[in-house]
Predict the structure.
Amino acid sequence: MSHGKASIFLTFLLLSLAMLAGVAEAREDLVPGSRYTDARAAAMGDAYLPLADDGASALFYNPADLSKIRKTSFELMNLSLYGNNGWVSNFGTNASFYKITSLSAYEPTLTANPGVLAGAGAQYLPSFYTKGFAFGILLNTQVQGIKNLDGSITYRSTYQVIPTIGTGIKLASGIVRIGYSLQMVDEAVGTNTVPSTTTPLGYNQGLAQGTGFSNTVGTTITMPWTYLPAASLVARNIGGVHYSTSSLFHFTPNPTGAPANEVGSYDFALSMQPKIGNGSYFNLVLEDRDFTGTSGMELAGRLAFGMEMSIKDSFFLRGGWGSGYPSAGIGLREKRGEVSFTWYSEEVGQTYHDIRDQRFLFQYSVKAF
């Protein structure tokens, strides 16, 4: 399939999901992090601070990486789709599994599989970037539902539109890189438990809705030695994110107030890049996500390790450990496009190894130039 035809197909798929779900925080993990989930980063356990080499991921993971961008690009298509293990396991048990984006339509499947947490989501992030500068708009939707033993349904929903802009500079011949990004987070989020007979029954009912501004500053120091050892530090949500009840989008017909304010957090990573010859190399990253512990997650759940083997920057094998769970993925890259498949997990409970949500993520991106 050509890039043009593939782009049309995937755009149609995204629009279909958006219409069914109502619209479109990527991470629902107990540990705070990027609001955008890149398939490459997820495969590496989210140990990713020094590696973002495109505008979209640099804006959300580490804006210092914007100074590494060499070519001007417009990425019109950057689409990710995910389904969790609970949803995938329902494929053969109920013919309505594809109705996951509508809670009322999917209720029979939840009823037939009590105690199974089923979830899916989509994100679309078109962006423009050039050396030291990028902007984009992230559209996110994530929905999950479970039928409880008492007959009620618990659902968790996230709808977001996030315009973002950032800049990055390099100092000392590129040894030091510094960057900043600003995100305007317009969202509706919430977790509710309701009787299955509730009318209307929808993921978008009774959510907290509002808008807040998030500031991120990142820096990476790379030593010009063998294996390019580097240290990265990112400060997220500097000063906190304070949500108002105003919103440009009407995600929920009956908002319950503003989303909870978010506190700032810090991520720190060490990395190196051993060469293996013939244009191939490894990326190795050890990261302490939220190293000040604002999330309350114990250290074992905040530590992350990621490994990526790049074969001539065309084929990638990835693996990692993050949030206390393993992850893996592959990637194929051409001059103007990339496809990635990732298996990873997020901790959606309240403590370390409480509730594991295994996810399967497909990401497809194409550059117009």
